[in-house]
Amino acid sequence: MKFEEICIVGLGLMGTSLAAGLKRKGFSGKIVGYARRQEACDYVLEKGYVDSASTDLAHCVENADLIILATNVLAMEPLVNKLLPHTLAGTVITDLGSTKEELVKSLSPLVHEAGCIFIGSHPLCGSEKQGPEACIEDLYEDRVVVVTPSDTTETDALDALGAFWSFLDTEVIVTSPREHDNLLARTSHLTHLMASILVGTVAREGTRGLVKDLSSTGFAKTTCLADGSPDMWHDIVKSNAIPVRQELTALKLEIEKLIADIDKNDFEAVRNYLEQTMLQRRELID
To answer: Where in the chain is the domain with CATH 3.40.50.720?
Structure first.
């Protein structure tokens, strides 16, 4: 199975960067883009990232053999319900969402009933910036993409989707939707919420005066994730609430341990903790 026409549903940062990345790598098939706003369609056409683009969803998907959902997670099911009557039998549908278990459970039966195939995907890349103008043409290169098939996923379709992602020079990891969500709650979702929590803590009495003047490079680098789309992160937390809560609880315990060491005047324990986490960070991002 080889994909000849790809429809990207959603032309924000992720969808536009995907289209641009395919062009950059010399994809020989047709790339179609769908967006709600005509301005986004005009932009990607002007840049040459797609071969055609439209605000007409039915027209965009009618000849696609691969449809990629590049929208907020909770917007995907309504979109799939709209596009399925217009798809070809055997079309593979995937997504770029950050949560998977609820999505696979809700979309797989709908898509299967229409004679199509749904397989979840999550590229581990992105930016706090938004919109097609934030496009990064090599955003996907040398990054990890997690693919989350269900128990009934056909091998041919899974292999074809893996080959598609490999074409973009990504490393493909296959795992279950549940394992994906549990791990990403720790490595990604918690990270974003920590940035937001830190901003809320620093700015708890306002953002004027010395608080603003003394919020320098370290603060900016540590909290840049908090500049991401609130709508997107609302959907991520809502669709992965239990694992996210578990990771926030683990964070709370780490903070409480550090507070306890300070209360005991055990600053050697504090130093040991800082050394331990320094080494762990280096190992994690090696």
So the answer is: 5-175
Strand partners, 66: 6, 92
Coil, helix or strand for 275?
helix
H helix count then E strand count, the chain: 13, 9
What gap in Å lies between CA 60 and CA 93, rounded to an integer?
A: 14
Region at 90 (left for phi over 0; alpha for psi -120 to 50; beta for the rest)? left
- Exposed / middle / buried, residue 152 (Cβ in 10 Å: 0-12, 13-18, 19+): exposed
CA–CA gap between residue 57 and residue 28 (Å, rounded): 23
Given pLDDT bands bounded at 50, 70 and 90, which one contains residue 209? confident
Can you tell me which residue has the tokens 């041919």?
156
Residue type, 25: K
- Name the CATH superfamily, with its identifier, for domain 5-175: NAD(P)-binding Rossmann-like Domain (3.40.50.720)
Check the CA dihedral 79-80-82-86 and report its sign.
positive
| pLDDT band at residue 111 under the 50/70/90 scheme | very high
d(CA 62, CA 87): 5
Task: Give the pLDDT confidence score for residue 127 in this predicted structure.
Answer: 83
pLDDT of 148 > 90? The answer is yes
Q: How far is CA 10 from CA 22, 23, 33, 72, 188, in A?
A: 15, 17, 7, 9, 22
